[in-house]
Structures are given as structure tokens and as C-alpha cells.
Amino acid sequence: MTTLLTVENLRVRYPTRTGIIEAVRGVSFTLGRERLGIVGESGSGKSQTGRAIMGLTPPHALITADRLNFNGIDLLSVSARERRSLRGKRIAMVLQDPKYSLDPVMTIGRQITETLRTHEKVSRAEARDRAMAMLEAVQIRDPGRVYDLHPHEVSGGMGQRVMIAMMLIAGPELLIADEPTSALDVTVQLDVLEIMDKLVSERGMGLIFVSHDLRLVSSFCDRVIVMYAGKVVEELKASELSNAQHPYTRGLLNCMPIIGESRHPLPVLDRKPEWAA
Q: How far apart are CA 144 and CA 109, in angstroms?
């Protein structure tokens, strides 16, 4: 399998008045043309890992790594201009909440075409046609109507599909999806997952799927990385997640409700200091 992304000993640190906060501590993994899930509690460093790969961390963040390589490109040494040309064109990220990620004063169509025309020299007419086709590809039934709407005029599920369309319009090789289904109901979740699964299989993309939902990740992804306190504590095949060995992963699995069983109250995760060492 061709390796698209190599991450070795990635660290993300933030200077504060009281000292250095380490958000990501020595994360390492590789990604091919597959679906890689990153799971863990809030604050475990999942999103910070994705943002560091994209180059979307705040300017005061300290980013270091032994290797951060995308398809032969050293992401730590490229210029800001080269990084911008990669972002959106070859690497894209679907952020968690479309209501805060989309510009409220721009129509949906204008935002999608702006992304395309930033990276490709196309006419307005061609950009509109491709945006309409992409909206249709993410299963929006009336793309012509949605194209002219503003973000506040669409539902959460449709807003999430719009974000996916915007990130895919330029044909990226790597997509980072940060909690893309967290605010959606179950039926819309399945639609969004089906869209991403189809794009990975048809386009040969690499997908990093960031989530806190272990059951969802185990059924959708190929491999899973479990993070705790900014570091990777376990990596295994998604189909083998139920056989995880690390006590943190076992604790997360044990906290999930099981249909047909009376578990009240649900078990509470008993964190151990050595997990964060």
C-alpha cells in the first residue's frame, strides 16, 4: 500500500503564563489510501494532531516532529505559500461544526467556487457547474436551490454535506474529517459515512476520521489509533477493537451501553497516572 502521510514523534506545545502545555506528545503513525480512525476523549489531542498536519494551529504554537511527510513533501520545512497551495488542493479538512466553519454572509455556492478558483484557473461558469455536481455527489437533492442559500438556511446535516463538498471540490488526496457526524442524527450519520466511504474507494483518497465514537469507528475505519493525554496508547485493526489490550481502551469500551443488558449506573473510567506518562 502506498504511504501518503508519515508522522513521527509529532509534538504540539503551547506556551502559557504558567508554563508549556503539551497538547500532542510524540504521536507517530502512517496513512495509506485507507480509512484511519483516531479516537479518544475530549482533550486527548485528536483535533490538534489533524490541525498540525494541516498547518492550522495558532502562530504561537510550537510544532516539532522527527518527520512530517506528505507524499514526499516535508510539511515542516515548506514555506507558508507552499503550505497554502497544498491546503484545500491536496490536503483538506472537514471541521467539526459547519455552522461555525462556513462564512455566514456568503452563499454556499460562492464559498464552494471560491475554494475551487483559489487552486484552479477555471471560469465562473465552469466553477458553478463543478460546484453543483459536487453538491449532487454528496446527495443534496436540489443543488440549484442550496447553491444560492446562506449557511443559516440549511440544516446541520446539510451544512455538514456542504462542508464535505467544499473540501472535496479540488480533488484532495488526503481528507481529515474532525467529528463529521457528532451533531447529526443516526440516519444522516449513515448518509455522510456512505459518502466518505464511496469517495475513499472511488478516488483512492486517504482519510483520517477523528471521533470519540468507538462503535462508529470500529464499523467504518480500517485501522484505529487510540489517544490519551496527547499520546497514542494503542493502535490496532478496527475490526479487532473489541479485543483491545490497553486498559484505557478497555475502559472506554466498558463504558458504552449494551442493548439488552441492564447496566445502571454505567461503569466510570478509572484513569491511571501511568497512562499519561
A: 9
Burial of 110 (0-12, 13-18, 19+ CB in 10 A): middle
| CA separation for the pair 171, 236 (Å, rounded) | 29
C-alpha cell at 23: 497538547
Give the global pTM. 0.89
CA dihedral for 168, 172, 174, 176, sign (positive or negative) = negative
Residue with cell 453543483: 132
Domains of the chain in sequence order: 1-90+210-277 (3.40.50.300)
Tell me how far apart the alpha carbons of residues 133 and 165 are, in angstroms, rounded to a whole number. Answer: 9
Q: What is the DSSP string of 97-157?
A: -HHHHS-TTS-HHHHHHHHHHHHS---HHHHHHHHHHHHHHTT-S-HHHHHT--GGGS-HH
Confidence of residue 183 (pLDDT cuts 50, 70, 90): low
pLDDT digits (tens, 9 = 90+) for 16-28: 999 999 999 999 9
